[in-house]
Amino acid sequence: MPSYIFKKRGEIIMADNQKMWTDLGMDLEQHDILCEVLPGAIGDVFLTQKNRPAAMDYFDMVLADVHGLRPGELVEFKKNGGKVFGTFCAYVPDEVIFAAGGIATGLCAGSQFWVPGGEKYLPANTCPLIKAMLGARFEKTCPFYRLADMYVGETTCDGKKKAYEILATDIPLHVMDLPQMKRERDHLKWAEEIKDLIKIVEEVTGNKVTEEALAENIKKINLKRQALQRLYNLRASKNVPISGTDVLLVSQIAYYDDPERFASMVNKLCDELEERVENGVDVAKGAKRILVSGTPMAIPNWKLHNIIETSGGVVVCEETCTGTRYFENQVDETGKNLDEMVQNIADRYLGINCACFTPNTARADDVIRLAKASKADGVIDISLMFCQTYDIEGRSLEQRCKEEGIPFLGIETDYTDNDAQQLKTRIGAFIEILG
Ligand code: SF4
Ligand code: SF4
Question: Model confidence over 346-358: pLDDT tens digits?
Fold first, then answer.
């Protein structure tokens, strides 16, 4: 069974990963069906864009062989005794896993392909991301879900909590109990949860998390965050040097690529974008600038960006977990011992403003701040269907945007294309009123 990698821009070549997938116990027949749609989707969504930065080649290549390249590296790592931890959320601190000599990899769950499989275990009125999580595991069509030695979940929403119980029947799974408020005692409690995670990863990997290793990995993950921040700063330029769809792909890959290589590739992209900014290159001349907020968009969910950017808009910022929530705020690097470092990690991660918190007015503050910084003409807030917290929060966010005079459009959608035409009409009309 072939997979697809890019030899050079726009050209797809075959690579054979069949043996690895067989060894991982994957359902190759179903996997073939999943892979068949990828080249077409890449062509339609990415390669039709004009004037893409040359440095996107790396991210195109990673995407085009998404089930081959990185899984291949992880399988090699495991052959030498390495342990891989699959994670689902921006709150799981990668620093700790890497400090124990493990590798953290995001488990994306962004495809409709996995939703029917998830519905065998979950009510249909569950968020598509959660259904896709279960479908990807149980239908055996994702190498990342197969190769992880352990999953690390978190108590961010009720649907996920219950889904983790089901996943735990099939794979070792550790759940971190995320506080849902941000008082001082919640910060202390989250630090305790991180200490528990340290014990778990030490047991699984057989390696101690030392002060040196944790300090080193705090720096390493901070560098990745800094690279992403640099990328987002460049998008704030008056002339837009890169499409939002391309940046979304970069943000999605951030969850599973090697952190150091990823940071260096993002910095390479930023070098090129800096030149573009200086030379006045604009990939979306005349397009209306949109900030997207809301639920995460995991690979291969490019639906909303694609619709916005083919309807007269350009996405200049994402206040999502595949956006600013993933990289804003660094872990303080001045911790002198393990306790201080863990507390610094806890404080940084509790600074993420997910709708699972109450109160969560800081998220609306973030949206307003980011909309102003990115010179957005309007905000489009997306809630995955049946995600109560983001759906409910959308109303107060709309009110805040109204008070600030920022045009706002709220959208609820899923992974299917059933509503694509209707979304195109609504988004097109919204963009038109932006003047
Ligand atoms: S939206 Fe909340 S629950 Fe979902 S990935 Fe982000 S932080 Fe985690
Ligand atoms: S989108 Fe909402 S319902 Fe779905 S996993 Fe995230 S927080 Fe939970």
Answer: 999 999 999 999 9
Q: Is 354 in the pocket of ligand 1 (CB under 6 A)?
A: yes
pTM given for the model? 0.96
Regions of the chain with pLDDT less than 70 = 1-16
> Which atom belonging to ligand 2 lies closest to the Cα atom of 356?
7
Report the distance separating Cα 398 and Cα 393, nearest Å: 9
Do residues 83 and 102 make contact, with C-beta atoms less than 8 angstroms apart? yes
Residue nearest to ligand 2 atom 2, measured at CA: 387
d(CA 386, CA 72): 35
Q: Using one digit for the tens of pLDDT, what is the confidence trace for 411-421?
A: 999 999 999 99
Q: Strand 173-176's sheet: what is its strand order?
A: 103-106, 84-87, 150-154, 173-176
Tokens found for residue 367: 């949206």
Nearest atom in ligand 1 to 352's CA: 7
CA atoms of 338 and 2, how far apart (whole Å): 46
Q: Is 115 left (phi over 0), alpha (psi -120 to 50) or beta?
A: alpha
